[in-house]
Amino acid sequence: QGAASDIAKLALIYVREELEGLDARLINSIHDEFVIECAEELANEVSEKTRAAMVKAGEDILEKVPVEVEVEVSREWKK
Question: pTM for the complete prediction?
């Protein structure tokens, strides 16, 4: 759990850096899940940048452990 928390915090930093200059914003973070709001036409770019940032954070912390990240795009918030 400690490593997961470290990864999530580092991922928040990386996501913020990746989304800088885009019309997208992080609106919620729950454990290891981020909710980002953006224009529909930016959804693919934002989701890919977010996935890459989260993978990078995981690899930085876990080093040799493979990291997989699931990203979902939706028009509405989901549980």
Answer: 0.88
